[in-house]
Amino acid sequence: MRVTVIGAGYVGTVTGACLAYLGHRVTCADVDAAKVAGFQRGQMPIYEPHLPELLADAARRGGIDFTTDFAPAAAQSDVVFIAVGTPPLPNGEANLSYLEAAARNIGASMDAVRFRVVVNKSTVPVGSANLVDTLVREGIREAHPGNKQGISFGVASNPEFLREGSAIADSLYPDRIVLGAEEDRTMETLRALYQPLIEQKFDAPAYLPRPASLARVPLVTTTLTSAEMIKYAANTFLAMKIGFANEIANLCEKVGADATEVMAGIGLDSRIGRQFLNAGLGWGGSCFGKDIQSLLQTAAEYGYQARLLEASLAVNRAQRQIVIQKLQEKLLILKGRTIALLGLAFKPDTDDLRDAPSLQIAERLLQLGARVKAYDPIAMPACRAQNPELKIQYCDSALDAVAQADAAVLVTEWAEFAQLDLPQMARCMQQPVLIDGRNFFEPEAARRAGFDYTGIGRCARARPAPVPQT
Ligand SMILES: NC(=O)c1ccc[n+]([C@@H]2O[C@H](COP(=O)([O-])OP(=O)(O)OC[C@H]3O[C@@H](n4cnc5c(N)ncnc54)[C@H](O)[C@@H]3O)[C@@H](O)[C@H]2O)c1
C-alpha cells in the first residue's frame, strides 16, 4: 500500500520505517525542515537503537522518503497516519493544535481518486477521532468547496504502544495491535495494511530476531472511542504500577524490608506480573505524565474525580524529591557540594529528556546551592541544547563526573554503567556516597567497593549468613 506518516518523531519515524520494511511504500512528512534534512542525509535526528539499519532496509524493501511537503504523498496514499506530538498545555490538557493542523491539511490534499483512511496514531483525548473527522471534512470543504467530486475517507484510531529504546522490536513484534473504526471499509483497509505483521509473514531483520514464541500478533478491533481509551488506560495503569512499587518501597525502608525482594515475591503472581515493579526515583518521559493529566481532564469534563490517577501523579512527584532527601540525610548540607548525576535521559537507550527526573533533580540541587556534574552516554547534547539555563557541568565519562564529587546519583540505568569500576570510582570521590535511584547496583558489591550505598526501598541491614548445612 501507499502510506504517508505525518510527524517524523519517535513514533512516526519508527512506524513509517516498519511499514516500509513490511513492503509498503512510505513517505514521512514533518514541518521541521532540519529534521527532514537530517533524515534525507542519512543522519538520525533522534536516537533509537537500530533505526539507521531499519531505515536502510526499509528503503530497499517498500521504499521510504522524508519530506516537508506532505500533500503530494498524501494525495497518492491509501492510508495517512497522524503521528504528531500532543504535548500537555500548562493546564494539563493535551495540545491538539498540531493534530488539528495535520487533519485539516490532509483534508485539503484529498481528491476523489481513491478511498483513504486517516489513522490517528498520536495519543489524543477520548473523542478526538470525531474531531479529526470534522477537521478533515473542513479541510476538504476549504480546498474543494461543495466537495462535488465525492471525496471519501474513513477515520481510524490505532494507538501506539512502542517504548523508546526498544521501539523497533515493539513495532515489529507487538503484544497486540489495536484498531478502532466505525465502518468495515476502514477496518478492512487497516487489517490488510497490518496483515504481514499480524501473521508475522516477513523476514525478521538480522539485528532484531523474532521472539521464538511469537507466531501471530493479536488484533483487537474496537470502536473509535474504545481504542482511544485503551491507550490511556494502558499508560495510566503502567504509571500506577510503578507508583505502587515506589509507595511500597518507601514503606519497606521504614519497616526494614527490601523492596527488590518484595517485588520479586509479588511479581511471580501471574495476576500481577514482574514488569514495571521496579522501585526507583519515579517515571518520566513524554507519555505517562501527559496521558494521566489528559485523562484527568476528560474525567473532569464529565464531572468525575479519578482519585487513583490523581494519586499516581502525586506519588511520582514526591518520589523525585526522595533523592534530594537522601542526599540531605547523607551530606547534611548541600550548599557548595558537588553532586554527580549518572544518566540524564528519562530512561536508557534514548536521548529523550521530556519530563526526565534528571532535570528536576538537577534544578533542585542547583537551587539548593549544589554544583551539578553529569554524564550520559547519549543525551548530553540534547540536554545542553534544550536546557541552557541548567548550569550542569557535562563530563566525558562517568568517572570524570564522579571525580571529586561529594555524592553520585544513578539516575538512568544505562547498561554501560554495569561495567563501571566501582572501587576506582569510590576512591576518586570526595565522599563515596552513592544514591542508586534505580536499584541498579548490588548493594553489597557497592559497599565492598567502598561506597556508602543507598538504594530505593532497600534494606540497609546485612542479610543473615546462611546456616551451614550439616
Ligand atoms: N514517544 C513515545 O514513546 C510514544 C509512545 C506511544 C505514543 N506516543 C504518542 O505519539 C505521538 C507522537 O509522539 P512522538 O514522541 O513521536 O513525538 P515527537 O515530538 O517526537 O514527534 C512529533 C513530530 O510531529 C511533527 N509535527 C508537528 N506538527 C506537524 C504537522 N502539522 N505536520 C507534520 N509534522 C508535524 C513535529 O515536528 C515532530 O517532529 C504523541 O501523541 C505521543 O503521545 C509516543
What's the gyration radius in Å? 24 Å
Q: Major sheet, described briefly?
A: 8 strands, mixed
Shape: elongated
The level of helicity is 40-55%
Structural class: alpha/beta
Rounded mean pLDDT score: 96
Instruction: Work out the number of β strands.
Output: 14
Give the strand order of the largest sheet, numbering strands 1, 2, ... along the chain. 3-2-1-4-5-6-7-8
By DSSP (H or I, 4+ residues per run), the number of helices equals 17
Bound molecules: nicotinamide-adenine-dinucleotide
Q: Report how far apart the termini are.
A: 70 Å
Which spans have pLDDT < 50 for at least 5 consecutive residues?
none
Residues in β-strands, percent: 5-15%
Word description of this protein:
- With 470 residues, the chain is α/β, with parallel strands linked by helices.
- The chain contains 17 helices and 14 strands.
- It has helices at 10-21, 33-41, 51-60, 71-76, 97-109, 128-143, 167-172, 184-198, 224-255, 259-267, 288-301, 307-331, 357-367, 380-386, 398-402, 422-428, 443-448, and strands at residues 2-6, 25-29, 64-67, 79-82, 116-120, 153-157, 177-181, 219-222, 338-342, 371-375, 392-394, 407-410, 433-436, 452-454.
- An eight-stranded mixed sheet has the order 3-2-1-4-5-6-7-8, with helices on both faces. A six-stranded parallel sheet has the order 11-10-9-12-13-14.
- Helix 14 links the parallel strand 10 (371-375) and strand 11 (392-394).
- Helix 1 crosses helix 3.
- The site of nicotinamide-adenine-dinucleotide has 26 residues, from helix 1 and helix 5.
